[in-house]
């Protein structure tokens, strides 16, 4: 069963992956899943290859992605 929240999350991640393939910067967003859907909590920009990217990758892997630039 696919809920509205999971659909919003899937859509957000698709847009997220699009950003990864077209930009040299990565937008890091933490999401809170609630009945009202997906809420962006924070956003930070990093250049690819910096050590600060590690938290981003850890978060992405938790969602089943783990995509690296």
TrEMBL record:
Which SUPFAM superfamilies does this chain map to?
Answer: GST C-terminal domain-like (SSF47616)
What the entry lists under Pfam families is as follows:
GST_C (PF00043)
Q: Which residues form the Glutathione S-transferase C-terminal domain?
A: 4-48
**Name of the protein described by the UniProt record:** Glutathione S-transferase C-terminal domain-containing protein
